[in-house]
Protein 1
Amino acid sequence: MSVFRHIGNLLPDLPDTPELVMAQWRALGRQIPLMYAMLVCNTLIVAWTHFDVAPRELTLSAPAILVALCALRTFAWWRDRHRQVTPERARRKLLAMSLAGGIMAISFIAWSFSLFPYGDAYLQSQIAFYMGITTIGCMFCLMHVRVAALAVSICVLTPFAVFFLASGQETLVAIAINMVLVVLVLLIILLGNNRDFAALVASRSAMALRQAETQRLFDENHRLANIDSLTNLPNRRSFDRQLAQDLREACASGIPIAVARLDLDRFKSVNEIFGQLTGDRVLIEVARRIEALRRPDTFVARLAGNSFGLILHGPVDEETLAGHGELLCNAMKMSFDLPEGAIRLSASAGLAASRDDDSAHSLFDRADNATSLAKRDARGSAVVFAERHARELHHARRMEHLLHSANLEDEIYVLLQPQFDMALGATTGFEVLARWRSPILGEISPAEFIPLAERTGQISRITQAVLRKALAIGADLPRPLRLSVNLSAHDIGSTTAIEQIVAQVVQSGTPCRMDFEITETAVMRDLRQANESLLALLDLGARIALDDFGTGHSSLTHVQKLPLHRIKIDRSFVAEVTSDAASRAIIKTMIDLSRNLGISCVFEGIETEEQLEALVSLGGHIMQGYLFGRPMRADAIDAYLTREYALRHLEGRNRSAG
């Protein structure tokens, strides 16, 4: 009984897992035709040996029917060997095959028993051998489907054992007992093997699932590594790889390509005013607009932040590229209508065509440089990199290298421009202006090297050199006079830079008579840090001036929140004071604002008597410009002050005489 219980434990229903069903289906697809071929051969051999002793119905008709059934079943399996089936259909066919197997087993065993009475002992032994060996062969062929193997074994073994045990003939009884034992052992082995087969299929399925999950994670990582998650555009990594590939193909074919870089102007203000979520929506819409404009062979990527890159194929002459650039820039000028409101932006683009000796880096570098030129000189428009830009870039790179290796103590020198107080009728101070004389390039305009120094992080070195020279000059100036030194955004925003400035002033050992001029751009970066830096300078006894007032953002806010002593009105307002009523009104407002806040107001860029008279009539009194004196060397200050004193003394005598 324990044997039968063990067999029972090995007998599950038809498998529920689709993977096991399909594995059994594929295995039977190879084995069933072999099983039917074995049945046909064995049946024909038995019919042949009994042909002379048994009726024709048993040696011709019955075998023909059985062989035909086997042929039909073989044809059905052969026909379906490459057909795609679903797990559910495969399960139904396995069940049908199990039922058909039992029915055919009964048919074959019935035919065998009908032949048994005919013939001698040899032929009867052949019948017993035929039933036994055919049953074992069928069980092996059906080993992957437990139900089918069990159905065949039961349908054959039960009548076989009963028939031969009931015969009373010792040899036949022994054969029956042997057959039962062999089939039972085979059942245990085959059913156990089937269990291992199911476990193997389950293991393979689990492995396939793990591989699928691994592939999914790989694909997801690949997507994250190469696709921008916000816009679903390729990212910088994909752009660089595609550019290198397209450039190799362009060099091989001799057909140039072009690269465009598009940057949104002042995009940071969108995040600051509306929030990052709105900024993300704007970027998504920007990506959509670029995608709508691109040609099928154009590669578009989001490079970083508010910067997008394009790889262009087709004509790359300057006129065509300029047209592409303007098309992109114009598309960004249309308002972005979002739930938070309509947002208007502009975009600047730089484009560059490839050359024979280009690398991906050099080509993109030119497009990047063209974008910088567009943002600087033609904001909201496109610039195509041309030969003149190449010369400028070469000069800038050379200048950058020389600035980095320069001995600033020797190469940087200062000039001083007087600041004249109309109310006192005297010069009250000088602005210290940095100049650079390179031993290789000669005199370099501050309009060139100051922005370069700010971009390359060299500006603090220049500030230190200028401040040292200013402190040395200030030690010899008459006591009432003060010096104004410009500080960059990096100086104000860096705790280290401010500490170095403070240390220099303290080490000079003289009372601080410095006015430090800052720009609104420097303040905008970090108002809190700017305040801390300015307070550290105020502790030295220095004064603070806001330079280029009126040209930046939120100027009134800065005047209110910063510890300022004076503001310097930008020369652009002074230039139009005699011709533009709006400029005069703005200047008058600035003067009144300064008076109400208790700070002084300095006007830059005064070049004519008419400008001076207009400013004085509006209430201005501290002036700076060529009308009062051009920038001069420190050794010319004494002569300048002497002339001024003599002139003032002469005017005083004339007034007394009058």
Protein 2
Amino acid sequence: LNRALERDSRSTDAWAVRAALAEAAGDKDEQVYALHTQLRLSVAQKLPKEALDALRARLVALDPHAVELFSMNTRFIGTLEPIAAAYEKDGRPHSAIRVHKLILALDPERVASQQAIERIASMPDPSLAGDAKPKDLLADVSAEWIAAFDAEHATWEMRANLERENYTTYTNAGYEVLVRAAEAMEQMNRFYRIFFQYGTEEDGKSVPRIDLNIFKKRDEYLKLGIGPPVEWSGGHFTGGAVETYVEGQGFDGMTGTLFHEAAHQFVSLATNAAGWLNEGLASFFEGCRILPNGTVLMNLPANHRLFPLADTMEKGWMSGPSDGIDPADPSKSNPEKAPTFRIVVENNYAWGPPWYAPTWGVVFFLYNYQDPVDGRFVYRKAFREYVNASGGLTGNTAVTKFEEVVLGNPLPPIKGFDREGAKDVAQPKTIDELTELWKTWMLELRDEQIGRTKRERPYLRWANAALLAKDNVAAQEHFEKGVVANPKDVELALAFADFLAEAKNTDRATRLALAALRELESAKPVDTKAVDRVDRLLEKWDPKRGSIQKAQRELEAAAEALVGRYEAAARPMMVMDLSWRMGLDLDMPKLFAAYERALRSSGRSLTLWELAYDEKSLEGWDTGGNDSFKAAGTFLDAAFRDFSASEFDYQMLALQRVTSGDYSLEADVLAQRGECNFTGLVFGRKDANNFHALVFFPGVPRKEATKAVDNAWVDLASFYGGGSTKTWRHVPVAADTLADGQSGTGRWHKLRIDVAGAQIDCWVDGELVASHDFGSRDVL
């Protein structure tokens, strides 16, 4: 049963079996909890009314508090619905969503609120995505339904399609690819419009809808794609469609390709860019990240471009555009050194794979190079002008135009901002001088991404400087990045809220102020003056705050009373379920104390592991092109070369999953002495050479009677490429001992990592062996 729920935690049949087993064991707490969970999932999956009524009747007979739980909706929804409607009518989407989520926390089957959130979420405002979208785009469908859908649309002839505002997606790669890719591209389209300043409300220009053709297999893409595509390509833009495939690059790699190729539509519509600049601009978008709810994080480093570029920069500079390029097969060349800034801008080379990383690096640098004191983007404005001024120029003409438009017009220091004696950031006058600055900046970015160094980013100070310069666009960018990097920074949140309120966006200002208020109220001691100030701001910005507060106070009292009754009835699983769910969904942190009491007293947990390996194939995993790992039923077999005690080469198997928050990863591993030097769990992977890992070393074979030191251990380490590593923790662990005649113990060890924010805990066989704070979530 546990394995069934690990495979599909939304299976109503599995929860029904869990309830039946609990009943047979006389565990009424488990039975009641399982039936309530089955009911919630049945409502979400729109099971027939008769089945829902039967489940409710069964629960009422079994659980004396079920009626009170079911009736909470009628007590409070009548109060909340008019407030939600008024918020939406007044153009306050964040507030309307907040109230509708309160309603859905009470009544998950409330169709009106579900439709309202979906309607509001369709507004062209990326800040709504995190709140408005479901936490999981697959939350309302079961694994069985997805499997049936995927089987029906498994060939390109029977491909599924989903039409949205800006793209129509076609794919035979499965339902998850269909909905997640479609949602990601709609979000991405909004960023294209902002970046290229084309197709916005202000300019009124039209952007035609195009197709996204996502093939499951690479050979399908090469055979059935429009054109057909060139053999070395991972995707292409045809003018009316973007095409790519999933096989070998996984979902993240596939969306990176989509982000790149779809950008060509806007490059052609909004600019005169050609040659390297066309591809460099498109490559800029490969660094965007997609979260499980479809939200896209923008303007991030494309590490698969950054790391190879940094490696070649460290080895030196190409002497010219043909240095390291095989004239017989340029597309398969891999130059050892990097091109200089001049070589890239001169554009005297045939386009191919070797030039993606350098051109990405040029564009990302010019867009993001900052003064560390006032935070201004030194070349961003001038670079925008150069995009159109370049017009496909080559050679010395291109260099002269670049030096004239970009290097000749850096953004000056912000007037009136106190630099406290700090020097201005470097601003070379020639493109050849710029090359070394570019290298330094890229290597620092690489080191920051892998956790080797940490860079201070004072977003609030930068935002204030931008406001002083009357650059509200840059100020908002600093604020947005700041609240993501430091979500508990009250001063930053309130400054951003003030900024938004002045821009007449009191709706989002209210949301930020509420988050700040929660932090202030949870602090010890409480700063009552600060709390009073935020309360006054909320009263000013949210005219219906009094009504919401009254309803929430009554809700909190009812929820606390209900949790208390379950606690008195010795129903710890129901206590944990209600206190955690209502504490989060209804924003009632007081309930978490009851959760902790129930957790400690019962020793039970509501946590369900998700089975990452389907026990049939490596679907959803990235092998990195190696064949070291094989699916073998319930096991994953791993073999890499013949054993040698002196060799420490490795291969890795990566789970293709982007998490929206904290996570845990656990695996049972068999690493026998004399057969395997080490094994472990990788996390925070940037590429095959840059990652962090919990590494288990079983040690060398040791007989029972020997007096040799037993040297099994685990390391928590970071790998930086080029053989460079940093061991953060080195911990001895119990070693396996061989009896006479044994070649191995056959003992499995359970390895586990818990990632929470920038903190990681490492476990071996159920014991906590190491903890470390990496300082930044970006590193992980």
Protein 3
Amino acid sequence: GFVKQYQVLLDPTRLQAFGVTAEQIVEAVRGANQDVGARTLEVAGSDYAIRGLGYLRGVEDIADVAVGPGSGGRPVRVGDVAQVTVGPDLRIGIAERNGQGEAVGGVVVMRIGANALDVTTRVKAKLAEIESSLPAGVSVVTTYDRSDLIHRSIQTLWRTLLEESAIVAVVCLVFLLHVRSALVAIATLPLGILAALAVTRWLGINANIMSLGGIAIAIGAMIDAAIVMIENLHKHIEHEPDRPHWERVLAASKEVGPALFMSLLIITVSFLPVFTLEDQEGRLFRPLALTKTFAMASAALLSITVVPVLMGYLVKGRIRPESANPVNRWAARLYRPVLRWSLRARVAVLAACVLLAGVTVIPLTTLGSEFIPPLQEGSLMYMPNTLPSVSLSQQRRMLRVQDSILMSFPEVESVWGKAGRANTATDWAPISMVETTVILKPKSKWRPGLTQDQLIAELDRSLRLTGAVNSWTMPIKNRTDMLSTGIRTTLGVKIFGPDLQVIQRIGQDIEGNLASVPGTASIYAERSFGGRYLDIRPNAEALARYGLTTGDVQEVLATALGGDQVTTTVEGRVRFPVQVRYARDFRDSPEAIGRLLVSGDDGLQVPLSQVAEIEFAPGPAMVRSENGYLNDIVSIDVRGRDIGGYVAEASEVVAREVDIPAGYRLEWSGQYEAIERVKNRLEVVVPLTLLSIAFLLYLTFGTLTETFMVMLSLPFALVGGVWAMWLLDYNLSVAVAVGFIALA
């Protein structure tokens, strides 16, 4: 929107006629806008505070400010040499909604560590409170709200947890075939989950997809210990019917309790690699690792304390032997022939396992790689790349056109387009940077059979008429990527070197060569030298001839063209800046600027064109640096292909086709940077974790042979996961790595 500003528009001909300078106007306005206090005065037994009231309160006050005597001793006011008006401050951002025209936008910035859902709820309540006090025709409309995504995700996960718990309960009942025994096993689930949630609550971890996901993947392992202990008690009851019941409970618990506790401890230790993850992957998966660890620790504690007590009270009476269970009989009937054949052909079985593990290398090497699978947020972020020299008026027209096109799709609920930024240090976006949030309708209202990828492809084709290079992502994903790597697309190439012109040439070469690589949806090299400048270079020889200095020229430029914000008015609870500059007619062309007068100490006034060179010149629109090196970015939107495979092929193309001089280097960033960081970390931590697990197994068994046998099951356990990923066309990712760690 527009920011109100008082503007003092100087007329240089009047300044010359009245014999005053722009500097005098600036000092007069600045000095006139102040209040002072002068202690108190006692009058008739009462104290009166003395105030000197001088704050400017409007256009008339500013116009009436006395500048001083002009030529001939005549008093001069600001209004005599300038037009004082109310106007907008310099705009560095535009907002547009639904293709219907400009709108005023605001952003709610949440504090670090705050609960997003709680903050959103309280913000909505405050907006509802102020709605009745808004002027007629003004309304506050929410353009982006992630609370819907949070609610949908949490509801889905809670439903999954309940379904998983129900399935586990049914399985326990079917295989134990004893209701009270099944209740003992099932009781460990709510107790363990409640204990885990209590600890996470104490640590300040919110209930989110990852924290609840940790409990979800722990449910199966949590109940294992209770089932093993209950089945062992069943055996004791079957073979020792005359032994006192609590002695049988004690014996059954002692036999398997230590091994069960150690197994749960090993499962907990196996998640140590997840705790070592850093950056965004650490923040993302650490809640999952914590809740799973707390759940497993609770299950381990329950298995050696509560479960034996519950078994003593509930697992008694008539217990059917294992052979009486039809499910167990059917499973045993299938398993015994397989077991006998495996023992007879043990060499062939081992050879087949080794062969299968070796063959699994083939699909493993063909799997793609990505950071994490994308979360469907229910909204899109459209970020077209425009030239850095685009004007404010041109960007306004483009923004309205693109938003109108987006709103023409039946799947789109609303569109909020933004170019540039607000006047804040938290956002560096130039006017050429467009961020458009596209809120989608629920999937039930989409055209039948339409997927999100197909919708993005249709939107992309429709928006190509604007001439911009399109890139598509999602709001939360975009913010995460921008904060962690500075790249707004899936992938990017950072070019480092000492010369921005050479960096731009390398970027354009990369853009041209990678455009044809399969998987490149769009590619755009930032134009370092896309800025356009009007350079005014003082001539030292000419300045000396007139007795002027470079400072005299720069002072005129800063005041006449740039405009000094000389003071701020105080009008009750609001503040407005006051700016002094030349009127538009005296600064709207290079010729007019050349006629500006430069004044010296002796009153001599010389046209600017006689003491400075004025010319158009190209230059960097924005200068980026990282770790002390100049750099620029090639943004690549990759779709329909894994990131790792794309980078491998693109790197070969760049090495073969792009000339990179000495002193310059490339760095692949975006998701690939995170992939490499996780890979390097896990290559160190996973072997150390496996050694720790092997040590715990050795403490349990006391022999290297049994330890080796258990550890040997790990590679064979991964075989099924690799083949499943290959058949389902999944990519390797951090989420997959965490899944394999949970399996181990």
Protein 4
Amino acid sequence: MADTLTLFTSIGLSEQKAKETLKNESLSSSLKEAITQAQRVHGASGVDKAMGTLLYSMASRLKDTKRLAFLSESIAQRKICTELQLAAALDFVKGHPQDPINQKEFDEACGVGVVITPEQIEEAVEAVIKKHKDQLLKERYHFNMGLLMGEARSALKWADGKVIKNEVDMQVLHLLGPKTEADLEKKPKVKCFLKLFIDCLGDAVSGEGKSLMEQLRGEALKFHKPGENYTTEGYVVTPNTMNLLKKHLEFTGGQIRTRFPPEPNGILHIGHAKAINFNFGYAKANNGICFLRYDDTNPEKEEEKYFTAIKDMVEWLGYKPYAITHASDNFHQLYDLAVDLIRRGHAYVCHQKGEELKGHNVPQSPWRDRPIEESLVLFERMKKGLFAEGEATLRMKMVMEDGKMDPVAYRIKYTPHHRTGDECFKPGVVSPIHKCRAYTVHMSQVGVTVSQTTTEPHLLEACVRDVLNETAPRAMAVLEPLKVTITNLPENFKTDVRVPDFPADEAKGSHTVPFMRTVFIEQSDFREVMEKGYKRLTPEQPVGLRHAGYVISVQKVIKDTQGKVVELEVTCCSSETAEKPKAFIHWVSEPLVCEVRLYERLFLHKHPEDPSEVPNGFLSDINSNSLQVISSALVDTSVKGAKVFDKFQFERVGYFSVDPDSTADKLIFNRTVTLKEDPGKI
């Protein structure tokens, strides 16, 4: 161990980095072999830090270890000298899994022997700046300098990126001069980066003016072509891989096929919406098909309602699965494959307890080298239910990408499976944990990281508002009604008022609502005592009624025995003749009685899972006021006949959607998001 540590530090690794590497048995073995290979060329002390960095990078990224010696030698012979060349080399060997490697093609693909002079870089940058000169002079330092970098690098593929950047900076400074105060001002953002995420049907527009479907079509996302799965990071190539991929192409005809593989153990969340959108969207945009594949391998947590809810959600987002399949469809085949792995010495029955297998530095199983025939007999006994839960597992002889040894492939669970029951395994179920590799489009391909991320709720809400502002017709709703009687109108007065569905674009349509002698306004739109800055209705201050063409003035305030204001008597006059009021408020007349549910943040803190913020755990941080139900809200008659999930903007209140709990007698509306806050308005 000490000798290996010294070997790793000799190539420039820090002692801490070297010790971390030693913990990963697979990486440690590959790096040791790579260094040994390089030392055969340069001697024990001839591997400098630059070469050592490339060797470490190669060993940590290379998945097909049979190419380790070839790449180590290429680095040692200084054919591969930069990270850019190494990336190209890794791509090349990934795309050419079969022997022999064509050295000439490899050298050409990796820029071996290519020398880029400073003069070439200067000329390339000069040409790019000349091309964009007019726009540069117009936008100055607000211009996207990355565009210049990208075009210069395209012209000189193997040039050092830092040298190109320095040349771009120098030539831009020469053209524009030093930055002014105006150059230092931040450029306003006019596009919402979550648009693609929100508009699940692909109508939203990105910063480049392309819809989601346009971006998912063609090669914009740089996915591998059908049948070229082996070119993806981490794909393991076996002697039979190319033959299987050839058969796959013959079967599919080269059609793009994706899948969305949820576990049916709960309700989908916003992250699933992203995955649905990209997997189904990518297939749809490229004339392919997408499967809904339930990963139903954990009968303890799966319920039929989750299967139904997942399918409903996929369809609600606008997609129809080509077919619906289940992991349990393959239980027989998975079992046969497991038996085959045991026969070939790649799997074994283990009796270590669950707690012993936790973490990454798990000691090697004492049963790892047990005879094959013994494992076959024990696995058959597992199938027949002759072991208790946790008494035996089937483990794969392999090292995971994260360095974990021998993952569990089968465990015993005496829980009937909702689809197979006890048909396959009696009396219990042996549940396969190992996930088969399939072509699933991941967020990393489109600039969304696969690591744990946090999306700020206010950013999501802002994007929801942008979408609903264009798609949700307006209606008027009063959540806390205050009765208003207009005394100078006749008792039986009634007229229709036309309200635009979208005030910013009245050509998109309108609807009518009744206007009568009695209307209802929000309690908060009236104050008996005038306060500084208050712009709505008071005994001294009139207010306009939106869309009605009237201004009302208070004549009498009526209170109940507790002193609470329960009714206002007012007079009205035409807004054309009256002095313009300081504000216009919404109202309803002869309304529908509806239930409205107002949702707030579920947790009190921003990071409820963080012990430093919430020491007692996230359950202690639940907001008890996260839901307010208003059972007798008043909504104008334009919403009558609305269907489940129809969306509306209740003017001055927020955006709402019709809940599935609605009945023919009473509509229920859920608030999706509030309107934009206006801090200057009281």
